[in-house]
Amino acid sequence: MNVHLFLDINFKIVIFIKKEDMMARRKSVKKRNKIIESAAKLFAQNGYFCTSMSEIANRAEMSVGSLYVYFKSKDDLLIEIFKNYFDELMGNVEKIFTETEQHPLDKLFDGLNLVVNTLSNDKDMAKVFLVELRQSNKALESIAPEIRDKYENLIKNLIDEAKEKDLVKKNIDPELIGLSTFGLIESILFDWINKGYTKEKLLMKLERAANYFIQGIRK
Question: Where in the chain is the DNA-binding region found (predicted)?
Fold first, then answer.
């Protein structure tokens, strides 16, 4: 009886500890997300260089010491913001390219539209991506090439598929198409941020530019 009681008590203690660990992990994730959201807004509003770690901590409602437990520097925070955001975005683009039964060039249009539409729903993130990312050499060297390469590889694979099916002009360079469409997205979003016109106008400009581009490579 005593043995069973001892085991039962230990089992309950283990369950209690596991629940405590789960609650602590959830709380940690919530704090981390709040830091990322706070930093993105401050970077967009004040600029990367003009934003301090203490300002980020204040907006996230925590001490500076607690902030440094999660992120060692502004560079690390900026890199984390982009890695999380663009990993999800590129995953959604990849689904369009690989899981839908459409003409490859229709997939290309839908992918371009998804990227611009997603960024236009979060103007703070768009500003950080187009302007503030360039203020951090560490972020530029570590994350920007990764984002660009991942995107351009998705486009390259799609255009390779179109070439195999004889749906685009034979002299088309898939790598150049990836580079060109990345530049198209940057240019359209940068113009939108600088001139401040509506999202509807932004998407209309994208549609015209993307259709013009796609017609130029379609066979």
Answer: 52-71
